[in-house]
Amino acid sequence: MTVNLPYGRIYNFNAGPAALPVSVLEQVQAELMNYRGTGMSVMEMSHRSKAFEAILHEAEADLRALYAISADYAVIFMQGGASLQFSAIPANLRGPDQSADYVVTGSWSKAAYKEARRHGATRMAYDGTPGEFVHVPRNGEAVIDPQAAYAYICSNETVNGLAFQDLPHVPEEVPLVCDASSEFVSRPLDVSRYGLLYGGAQKNAGPAGVTVVIVRRDLLARTPDTLPPMLDYRLLSEHTSLYNTPPCFGIYVTGLVFKWILGQGGLEAIARLNRAKSTNVYAVIDQSGGFYKGHALPDSRSDMNVTFRLPDTALEDQFVKAAKAEGIEGLKGHRSVGGIRASLYNAVPVEATTTLADFMREFQRRNG
Ligand SMILES: *Cc1c(COP(=O)(O)O)cnc(C)c1O
User: Which of 27, 133, 280, 284 has the most crowded Cβ, counting Cβ within 10 A?
Assistant: First the structure.
């Protein structure tokens, strides 16, 4: 049942960088030599040109439409990946005498916690480490300090395959900060509940090199005057992401992906598809009689990153190899946790997940 897709492409379950919509890649290709009569590609034009200004403006406007972002929020296109945000967030939002609260539900929130701790007072409001990150905190398990500078969560833990279905309770005066990198623009969310929300593009929204930060404007008053400019939310937002040369080509492609999502019917429509895709894979796990063992408990399962194990690591290696031979790639779990991970981001078509589900049933029949 080897896959047979246009251009010889394969079913790509990579965790990031990850699949992009074929129609977006085709548009990039068509516009590469001469972007809309400019006589050059987006890679070759000035970031101060009219053409690029329009690209940046439209990308922001389309993102604002997708998430219904109000004028109370600034949108900043940054570089440095999600990892730079681990440093930027405490540097901008935590005053010298303040502490920040971190809800640690997996590898990425833990990495953010460790970075924040290097520079100031940081508290773990919840630690899922002892339970090996199989569920997000339930009612009352994460208690946020009402004095905290902010409360930090990672809404979708890419490595562990956990997602929040409902946000934890946060005292009204404490801004909620969220790393949404691996579920960015994959489902609707109410931006007004967050102080700051960010996502690296390379999971769901574009190529590596762009990180989108959505921050409530009143919080920009907290930014100290001493920050390096590339970390300074206030400065970058005052310059509408054009303080220096931004990642122009990445912003262009990310903007095309935003338009593609709008064309699919927006975030509600894309979320329905994403749920259908993850249901296809979780159903095989649940019906396998324990051959496939899901990592996350059902109430904390991610629609984006489905993590599971096979009876032993030799079978897992065989599984990854056999899948690859059939045109199904990117299933190896993160090197820190092993196992299998299927990432089902926006651009992964439903057929990819039915093909994967068929492959999993067949693999169990032969090896179970
Ligand atoms: C991938 C990822 C990161 C790290 O992103 P970089 O761009 O490599 O720094 C951080 N958080 C989450 C949730 C991620 O999925």
Answer: 133
Q: Does 204 contact ligand 1 (Cβ within 6 A)? A: no
What's the 255 CA to ligand 1 centre distance in angstroms?
20
* Separation CA 311–CA 318 (nearest Å): 12
pTM surpassing 0.85?
A: yes
Can you tell me the distance from the alpha carbon of 160 to that of 19, in angstroms, rounded to the nearest whole number? 20
Partnered with residue 236 across adjacent β-strands are: none
Span from the CA of 82 to the centroid of ligand 1 (angstroms): 5
CA–CA distance, 107 with 225 (Å, rounded to integer): 32
Other C-beta atoms closer than 10 Å to the C-beta of 325 total 9
Region for residue 190 given its phi and psi (left: phi exceeds 0; alpha: psi -120 to 50; beta: otherwise):
beta
pLDDT of residue 4: 86
Ligand 1 atom with least separation from CA of 16 = 1
pLDDT in tens, 209-247: 999 999 999 999 999 999 999 999 999 999 999 999 999
**H or E segment to which residue 359 belongs:** helix 350-367
Q: Which residues contact 366 (CB under 8 A, 6 or more apart)?
A: none
Domains and CATH numbers, the chain: 26-263 (3.40.640.10), 265-367 (3.90.1150.10)
* CA atoms within a 13 Å half-sphere pointing along the CA-CB vector of 352: 26
- Is 293 catalytic? The answer is no
* CB contact at 8 A, 127 and 154: no
How far apart (Å, rounded) are the C-alpha atoms in residues 181 and 108?
A: 10
- For the question of residue 108 being annotated catalytic, the response is yes
Asked about 324 being catalytic, the answer comes back as no
Contact 105, 130 (CB under 8 A): no
Atom number in ligand 1 closest to CA 179: 13
Tokens of 61: 């406007």
Instruction: Indicate the DSSP class of residue 175.
Output: P
* Residue appearing with tokens 């629609």: 303
Percentage, residues of the chain above pLDDT 70: 100
- Best residue among 182, 185, 198, 305 to mutate for probing ligand 1's pocket (most ligand atoms within 8 Å of CB) is 182
Q: Which of 62, 101, 110, 179 is catalytic?
A: 179
Output the 3-class SS for 104-124.
ECCHHHHHHHHHHHHHCCEEE
